[in-house]
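Teaching assistant here, posting this on the class forum so everyone can see the example we discussed in section. The complex has two components, and the goal was to see what a joint structure prediction looks like when all of them are supplied at once.
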Amino acid sequence: MNTTKFIGEHLLPGQIGYFLTILSLVAALLATYAFAKAFFSKELSVQAQWNRLAKIAFYIEAISIFSCFIILFYIISNHLFEYKYAYMHSDKNLPYQYLLSCFWEGQEGSFLLWSFWHSVLGLLVLARLKRWNNNINGVMMVLNFVQFVLATMVVGLFIFDAKLGSSPFLLLREEMSWPILARPDYLHLIKDGTGLNTLLQNYWMVIHPPILFLGFASTTIPFAFALVGLIKKEHDWMDLCLPWASFSAGILGLGIMMGAAWAYESLTFGGYWAWDPVENASLVPWLTLVSAIHACIIYRKTGGSLKTTYFFFGISFLLVLYSTFLTRSGILGDTSVHAFTDLGMNTQLLFFLLIFVLPYFVLFIVRMKDMKAPQKEDEIKSREFWMLVGSLILFLSAVVIISITSIPVFNKLFGTKIAPPEDAAFAHNQVQVFVAIIIGLLTAVGQYLKFKGTTGDYFKEKIKLPLLITIVVTAVVYFFVGVKFTEKGIGFTGAIYVALFASIFTVVANLFYFFSVQKGKLKSAGASIGHVGFGLVLVGILISSSNKTVLSWNTTGISPLRMESKKSPAGNPKENVTLFEGIATDMGKYMVTYVQDSFDILDKRFFVLKFKEKKTEEEFFLYPDVLKNNKGMEGFSANPSSKHYWNKDIFVYVTSFQDHEKEDTSSFLPHQMAIGDSIFYSNGYVKLDKVLVNPNTNRPAGSNELVLQLSVTSKEGLKYQASPSIVLQGMSLQANYDTVKAQNLVLSFNKVVDQQKGILEIGLKESASLTNLITLKAYEFPFINILWIGVIVMVLGFGLAAMNRVKKFKAK
Amino acid sequence: MKKTHLILLVLIAAAIVVLISYTGDLSSYETIGSAKQKEGKFVNLIVKMDKSVAVQYDPVKDPNLLQFNVQDSLGGKIAVVYHNTMPTDMEKSERLVLKGKVQGDHFECSAIVMKCPSKYKDNPNAMKEQPVTISN
C-alpha cells in the first residue's frame, strides 16, 4: 500500500464531503422507504410514525447536501488543488464571482446543484402542504427516490469493479498517474489549477445554471403528484400541483433564455439560439410542460383531457432525464459544441432514465382504462377544444425537435452514419415557423372562447377590435421594419410574415383581454400576461432573426476575379473584415476605426473600436475582447461586445488578431533605383515617383531635406503612398522611415549612390509584426429587446399564475 | 369518432410527414475517399490536420480565406478551402468535423466543428497525457 506521507494536503474537507455524500445517499434511501411506508399504510397512527421518521431522514439528507455544497465551494475558493475538482475547474487568478461557475462546470458539481434544489423544494413541499392528506407522503417518496438516484451519481463508490457515480471530492493523486504525484512534496510543484473554461467566465454563467437546474428540479414535483395520482387512482391533486407546475415552467423558461442571453453575449456564433442539441434538449421539456399545464387546466374546468394530462406530466419529466442523458453521456460529441464530457457513467444515466420512465408509463397504461372521459361530442366553439389542439401541437413540435436532436443516439443504436443536414438551423426553422403561426393564433383567440362552448356572437363581438388593431400594427411593422430575410425563397419569407401577424395578434389580443375583459385586475391575469410575454418572445425572435444584417461584409482585399465565389457552394459568408490600427474602414452605415488595444489585470485583451455613423456623425466605442485560454492550452476565446439601442443592437466580435509575441527578425534589404524604377516585394511592387528637395518650409535652419515619393501597389491592386526622407544638418544625417502598415512594409531612404545618374539606395523591410490588425464580424440585430422583455413578461405571468392559484387554494 | 381524435390524427400525420421530409435533408459522415466519389454532395468529414502542409491564412490579404490540408484515419488526404477566419485552436485540435462538399481537387468547407483539449479538458484520457502547469 501507499505509505508516502504527503506534505501540505488538506484531507479533512474531502473526507467530510465524502462521508456526507454517502450519508445523503443512505438518508435518501431511508426517507424514500419511510415515506413509502407512510403513504401505503391505511392507519393514521402508523402514517404519522413513519412520516416522523421519514422527515428526520429527509432533513439529514438535506443538511448533508447543503454541507457538501459548502465544502465543495470551500475547496474551490481556497484553491485546494490536491482535489481534482479544484485543479480541473479553477485557478488562482479567477475573479471571485466566477468561483461559482467552476462549481457547475463539471458534472459532479451540477448534479450536486440539482440535488440542492430538490432539497429546497422538498422542504417547501413539507412546509406548504401540511394540510394535504397522506398523498404528501407519496410526493415526498418520489422526490426522495429521485434524490437517491442523484446521490448515486456523485457518491463515487466501486461495487464489484463497477464505478458508481463520480465524486467531486477525489484527490488529484488518486485519479492521475503522473509520476510527480508520487512525490511527497507534489503540492509544491502544482502551482495552479488548469482553470475555468474561458467561455464560462461570464456573469450569465454564474446565474444561468442554478436557474436552469431549479427548473429541471422543479419538474419533479408535478411528476411526483401525477405518479401518486396514478397509484391512488385519485385525480384531485391538480389544484395543488398547478402552482408548482406554473412555477416550474416559468423558472425553466427563464433558465433556458438566460442560456440564450449567455450565448448571445459570450459565444461567437452571432446569435442567441443555434438549435444546438444542448439547447434543444432543455427547450423540449419546457414545451411539454406548458402542454401539461394547459391539459391540466382543461381537466379542472371540464373533466376532459385526463389521460393527456398524465401523459404530458410524465413525458416532461422523461424529457428532463433524457436531456440529462444526452448532454452528459458524451453522445453529442460530434454535433454539439457545448456538451459535457463523458465521465464513463452512460449505463448509470440510462438506468436513471429507465427507472422512472418504465414504472410510470406501465402504470399509466394500466390505469388508462379507468380514466373515463365525459361521453359527449367536443364542442368546436369551446376554449378547451382549442387549448387541447394547441397543447398537442406544442407536444408534436417537441417530438420533432427531439427526434432530430437524437440522431447521434440513433447512429449509436443502429450503427448508421447519419449527420445533420446542410443548414441545420433552417431545417428547424422551416417547421417551427408554422408551429409559431398556429400557436400564435390559438393563443390570441383562446381566451375569447369560453369553456364548454361559446354562445352567440360573444366571440365575434369581442375579437373584432383586437383583430383590427393587430392588422394596423402589423401593417406598420411590415412597412417600417419588414422582413429582410429572403434567402430561402418566397415561401419561407411569406411564412415569417404570417407568423409575425400571428404573434402580434397574440400580444394585442391578450393585452386587450387583460384590460377590457379582466378590467386590468391582476387576480386572474397570470394567463393573459404570460401569453403577452410569449407573444413578445415570438415577435422578438421573428423580427430580430429575420432582419439580422451583417455590417462587416467584406468588400476590400478581394480581387475582382474571386468575387464570384460569393455564390460558392459553401455558402461563403464573407463576413470578416480586416481592420488596421488607426485606419477607418467602411462598414455599411458606419466608419469603424480600430483605435488601440489594452490588457486588463486578467490578461483579457480589449480592442477599442470607434464606430462613427456616416450620416449622423454619431460616435460610440465598442470593446470586444479576447481572453487567453487556460494554462497549458494555446489559443484565445473571443467575447463579443454590443452597443444597445432601444430598437437595435450593434454586435461585434474579433475573429482573429495579431500576436506580437513573435520577434521582428527581418532586416532592410538595400535596392538601387532611379526615378521611374520599380522594385518588387512579396505582395506587389514599389515605384519611385519623384524626389523632392526641401518640400517643408518650416524645417530647421541650415538643414536640407530629401524626400522620396514612392507609390506602393499590391497584388490586389490597392495603392499606397510612402515618403521616407533624409535630413542633413551640418555633418549629421538622419534617415526617416516610412511605413505602409497595410502591406507590412517599412521603407527607408539610405543614401544617394550616384548624383549624376540619379541613382538612390532604398531600404525595404517586410515585417510580419509591423501592423496591428484584427479581423472581426459585426452584425446589427434590430428589436432584440422585444425578445428579452417578452421573456421577463412571460416569467412574470407564470409567477402571477402560480401565486393566484395558491391564493385560490388557500381560500377554499 | 370525436373531433379531438380526428385532429390528433391529422396532427400526428403532419408530424410524421415533417419528420420524413426532414430525412431527405439529412447528410452523412464520410471518409475522404468516399466523399471524393460523391463530388458536389454535402457531407461531413471526421479528420485531423495534415501537419506536413502549412496552413495558409493571411488576414491582410483576405480574412475570409483559409487553406489547409487534412487526413483521415484511413490515410485519405485532401486540401480544404474555408471562407472564413481561422478558428483559434484549430491547429491544436485533435479532431475536426468538416461540413461541406468536395469540389474538384479540394474540399469546400462551410463549417468546422472542433474537438479541442480546451473544450474537453474534463476528458480523463486527455489529462493523462498532459502534465501541464508544473514548474520546479
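For the discussion questions: The longest strand of chain A covers residues 703-714. Residues 31 and 54 of chain A are 5 Å apart (CA to CA). Think about how each of these relates to the inputs above.
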